[in-house]
């Protein structure tokens, strides 16, 4: 640590930065540490498809030019390395909240931040916010500085490899919280047999208490779909959507080239006044059946990030062995040790080339 005054502290961080697609270098960056912030040593990270889009250069050229160089990874946990706050002592295990609203970065009241914050729209829509690994350096560094509110203590009962899934689970929780009043009796369908769909279904089951008789998952790969043991399951290529029963809420968790078919099949399934929640990310525009959206009075809502308040309910569920067993199906047989920029580069390249069903977990080993 280098101290410049009573409240002016800076910390140097070793970062694995993506400088251009398929090229990661080790560099040193310096962070200012303010009174309301903590310093975290990342312990574990999880590779997201969003990280791979940057790594592979699948973002638009203007986005890459604007955001790189940048340390990737926004799903992760760490240990408090320095803190001035008694509620977050050194050594505390924490989940890192990557979505940082501007008022927390600046240490000001929300009403002084931006129109979205003043009007109570939520920190997901803060005009001045930042997101780790997307425009600002992410978790692939040995000293991460975030507002203390963005460091959520992990209960002792929750092991590291389960806690690292907390960010993606919180995204599912945020998507569903807007329809929570309906979830006690709603018939729910979900499209997507990848990690996003699996964790969204797991949140429905273990956080919101939705039983299998009210949760129907649609996928395209039998081996992946078989993992959803807590739901009814159907292959999209074998299901007759024109004669299906009506559903109240449908989640689209496919993204990419499959978004078009999934969204339109979801519209087929929904009954009058149904809710369609879009969670899959696509770089291209997707044509949809607006006629049935209008005739059925369907409400569509997009959701891709989460807020600080979405983490405690997820962590509460994660304390239970049944939830841990469900989430453990996404864990790899081995974690990938990361000791250098070369290790990180190789892990990203392997994840790009071998996109399996399970998550890729990075175990940071800082020298």
TrEMBL record:
Belongs to the zinc-containing alcohol dehydrogenase family. It comes from Paenibacillus chungangensis. PANTHER family: D-GULOSIDE 3-DEHYDROGENASE, NAD-DEPENDENT ALCOHOL DEHYDROGENASE. Residues 244-317 form the Alcohol dehydrogenase-like C-terminal domain. This is Alcohol dehydrogenase catalytic domain-containing protein. Keywords: Metal-binding, Oxidoreductase, Zinc. The keyword Zinc applies. The keyword Zinc applies. Residues 37-156 form the Alcohol dehydrogenase-like N-terminal domain. It comes from the Bacteria. Pfam families: ADH_N, ADH_zinc_N. Its cofactor is Zn(2+). SUPFAM superfamilies: GroES-like, NAD(P)-binding Rossmann-fold domains.
């Amino acid at each position: 640590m280098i101290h410049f005054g009573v409240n002016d502290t800076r910390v140097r961080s070793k970062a694995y930065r993506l400088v251009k697609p398929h090229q990661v270098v080790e560099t040193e960056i310096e962070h200012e540490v303010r009174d309301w912030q903590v310093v975290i040593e990342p312990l574990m990270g999880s590779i997201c498809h969003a990280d791979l889009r940057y790594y592979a250069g699948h973002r638009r050229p203007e986005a890459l030019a604007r955001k790189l160089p940048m340390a990737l990874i926004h799903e992760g946990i760490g240990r408090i390395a320095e803190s001035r706050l008694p509620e977050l002592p050194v050594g505390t295990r924490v989940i890192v909240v990557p979505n940082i609203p501007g008022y927390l970065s600046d240490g000001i009241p929300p009403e002084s931040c931006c129109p979205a914050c003043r009007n109570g729209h939520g920190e997901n829509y803060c005009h001045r916010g930042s997101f780790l690994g997307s425009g600002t350096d992410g978790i692939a560094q040995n000293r991460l500085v975030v507002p203390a509110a963005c460091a959520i203590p992990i209960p002792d009962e929750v092991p590291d490899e389960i806690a690292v899934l907390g960010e993606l689970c919180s995204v599912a929780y945020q998507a569903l919280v807007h329809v929570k009043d309906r979830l006690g009796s709603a018939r729910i369908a979900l499209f997507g047999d990848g990690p996003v769909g699996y964790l969204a279904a797991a949140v429905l089951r273990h956080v919101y208490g939705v039983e299998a008789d009210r949760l129907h998952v649609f996928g395209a790969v039998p081996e992946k779909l078989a993992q959803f043991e807590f739901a009814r399951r159907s292959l999209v290529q074998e299901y007759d959507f024109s004669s299906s029963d009506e559903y109240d809420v449908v989640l689209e968790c496919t993204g990419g080239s499959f978004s078009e078919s999934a969204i339109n099949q979801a519209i087929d399934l929904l009954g009058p006044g149904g809710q369609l929640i879009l969670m899959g990310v696509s770089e291209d525009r997707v044509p949809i059946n607006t006629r049935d959206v209008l005739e059925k009075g369907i409400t569509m809502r997009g959701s891709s990030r989460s807020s600080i308040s979405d983490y405690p309910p997820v962590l509460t569920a994660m304390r239970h062995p049944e939830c841990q067993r469900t989430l453990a199906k996404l864990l790899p047989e081995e974690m990938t040790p990361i000791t250098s920029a070369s290790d990180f580069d190789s892990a990203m390249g392997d994840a790009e080339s071998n996109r399996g069903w399970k998550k890729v977990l990075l175990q940071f080993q800082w020298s």
